[in-house]
Write a structure and sequence with these properties.
The chain is of the alpha+beta class. It contains eleven helices and eight strands. An eight-stranded antiparallel β-barrel has the order 1-3-2-8-5-7-6-4.
C-alpha cells in the first residue's frame, strides 16, 4: 500500500476523528505533515530513505544482545559493570548507557544493553577507535567473550513520534516487543503507530520505540514500562477498551512476519530502573 493511499484511507480518518482529541492528535499530525509536505508519490516514497522519514534526530542507539552461559551470570555482570564504568569515564565519547536488562521471561540467560550515541555514526566511528586503543577495555571484552554463548549488535534509530525516553525510578519491569516486518512496510508501520501511540499513554507505559538501521533489518522494538505484571495486564486491557485501538491493530498485523515478547528486569547499574 502506498503512503499516499494509506493517508487518504477514509475508514482510518473517519475513525480517528471520533477517538482523538486535538491535543492527542498534535504529535501524530506533525508526523503526517512531515510526509505530506514532501509531496511523496508512490515512486518517490520507494526512493526516500526510511530513516529520513521516520526519525528526526542525529542520535543512533546500539542494542547489544548477549546470551550468557548459565553458570557465568555473576561473573558476566561484574565484567559488564566495570565496562560501563570505563566507558562512562571517557566524557568525550558522546556515548551513554540508556538501559541494561536481564531477560526474566522469554530468552532466558540473555542480557540487553542499550547505548546512545549523540552525534550519529560519526560518534560511533570515533568511539570505536578510542576504545580499541584502551588495553583495559580490550581485556574486559576478551574476558566477557569467554562467558557468552552468542551475541548480536543492532544499530537503531528512534521513531520521531514516540515519546522521548526518560529514566524511570526503581521497581519496574519492562516489556520489549520485537517485530520483524515485511520488507517495504516500514513507512506504513510508522503511519499506523503515529496514531496508535496515543492509545498507549496510560500509566506512562511507553518507554522507547526503535527501528533497525544495521544488523537484522526491518526490525522494530517497542519497549514498555510497568510497575508489575498486574499493572501491565490492566494497562493493556484499558487500551483494548478504547474505540479505535482495535483498528490500529487490524492495520499493523498484516505487516508483520513474526514477533516475540520479552519481560526485562533492570540490572543494578542500569540508569533506568
Amino acid at each position: 500500500m502506498s503512503v499516499s493511499r494509506f493517508i487518504r484511507n477514509p475508514l482510518i480518518l473517519n475513525q480517528s476523528r471520533n477517538v482523538y482529541t486535538s491535543a492527542s492528535m498534535s504529535q501524530a499530525n506533525s508526523w503526517f505533515k512531515k510526509i505530506m509536505s514532501q509531496n511523496i508519490s508512490p515512486m518517490e516514497a520507494s526512493k526516500e530513505s526510511h530513516s529520513r522519514m521516520l526519525s528526526d534526530k542525529e542520535i543512533v542507539y546500539a542494542l547489544h544482545t548477549h546470551n550468557v552461559r548459565p553458570d557465568s551470570t555473576q561473573k558476566y555482570l561484574e565484567n559488564y559493570t566495570k565496562t560501563v564504568q570505563l566507558i562512562e569515564s571517557k566524557k568525550d565519547l558522546g556515548c551513554d548507557l540508556v538501559g541494561s536488562w536481564s531477560v526474566q521471561v522469554g530468552d532466558l540467560d540473555q542480557m540487553l544493553h542499550l547505548w546512545r550515541y549523540t552525534g550519529g555514526f560519526e560518534k560511533i566511528d570515533m568511539a570505536e577507535k578510542e576504545m580499541q586503543r584502551d588495553q583495559d577495555y580490550e581485556k574486559l571484552k576478551a574476558e566477557r567473550g569467554g562467558l557468552l554463548r552468542a551475541r548480536h549488535l543492532q544499530y537503531l534509530l528512534a521513531f520521531s513520534y514516540w515519546p522521548v525516553s526518560e529514566p524511570r525510578g526503581k521497581s519496574h519491569i519492562y516489556e520489549m516487543r520485537s517485530y520483524r516486518l515485511k520488507p517495504g512496510t516500514m513507512i506504513e508501520w510508522g503511519n499506523n503507530w503515529a496514531r496508535a501511540i496515543n492509545f498507549r499513554k496510560t500509566n506512562n507505559e511507553a518507554y522507547a520505540g526503535f527501528f533497525s538501521q544495521i544488523g537484522r533489518l526491518y526490525n522494530v522494538h517497542h519497549i514498555w514500562c510497568y510497575e508489575n505484571y498486574q499493572q501491565r495486564k490492566e494497562t493493556r486491557e484499558f487500551a483494548w477498551s478504547q474505540p479505535g485501538w482495535d483498528l490500529c491493530v487490524q492495520y499493523t498485523v498484516p505487516l508483520i512476519q513474526d514477533m516475540h515478547s520479552r519481560i526485562l528486569v533492570p540490572n543494578e547499574f542500569s540508569p533506568t530502573q
